[in-house]
Amino acid sequence: MSGGRPAGGLVTTAPREATPDGGPVLAVEGLRVHFTGESGVARAVDGVDVTVGRRETVCLVGESGCGKTVSALAVLGLVPGPPEGLAAGRIRFGGRNLLELDDRAMETVRGRRIGMVFQEPLTSLNPVFTIGEQIAEPLRVHLRLPEPEVHRRCIQLLADVGLDSPADRLADYPHRLSGGQRQRVMIAMALACEPELIIADEPTTALDVTVQAQILALMRRLQQSRGMSMLYITHDLRVVAQIADRVYVMYAGLIAECGDLDQIFKTPRHPYTRALLAALPGRGKRGRRLYSIPGTVPDPAHRPAGCPFHPRCPQAEPPCRTQLPGLCAFEPGHVARCPVAAERGPEDWCA
Q1: Which domains does the chain have, with CATH numbers?
Q2: Which of 58, 109, 222, 281 is deepest in the core (most CB within 10 A)?
Q3: How far is the first Cα of the chain from the last one, in angstroms, to the nearest whole number?
Q4: Does residue 144 carry a pLDDT above 90?
């Protein structure tokens, strides 16, 4: 590709974040999740590196269909096995590669050391069991607590997530609660065993703006007070701006860009990141038509050759159509899968 001196060099993986004890809580390395279907092999996740440091909130952001949720399910060991799906790579957590654990071993991790908050609580909660019974289950299974202690902890958990009259709520069924209340219950369940890591998959998408802000503030407060790490999955950069320490932008099963919050919002390098930011509404855009990214995320079974974003990219050059770029380093902790951005430099790319 033509241009001036590159602003960064080629790297093979995303940067590793140092933590006080010398390593991240979670290190996903070269994760691949492929599904076999009638239309061929769908490469839902195709070589993803993500790290989450201690007490850190990392956001994984991108449009629907880019592989965010599948990546989270792989961490939790919830990807169906062959012949439907196959996960490869390494997911390091607690000194072990989670992809090498059998179902019994994963049961000691899932819910106990890694908590999960799903997108839609009404479909995640069991409609025939009370709230109290569902919060109590992980306390009984993982911690084997006596019933009086289980009851006490259930009340405390509901109080911690801000539900009124927590003792009375234990007897309620999910359908009697509002969407925001159900999501608070899901957070209580995820926190029940005091996990080291929380994975939250778009937990505020179905909520109105006011309740969404309350849930985000709650999760941030609980994460900080309990010293947990959090991997937060979302398509909404406004949410990212409120909670993230670092951000991974994902597109078509690949990491397009990674950096801290300021790097992503102030000096975005990848055209996809820039397009996502351009599509955000704001006061300065009042009266103007909002930008929308042309086209759609490609079918993972028919990903285009070269850079998967090139059919939608206004900056694409001929090599983008044939060569899959590696990650280019720009400044410490900031990488993007775009050599065009590296060649042009920040003065004419991020203005």
Answers
A1: 9-100+228-303 (3.40.50.300)
A2: 58
A3: 21
A4: yes
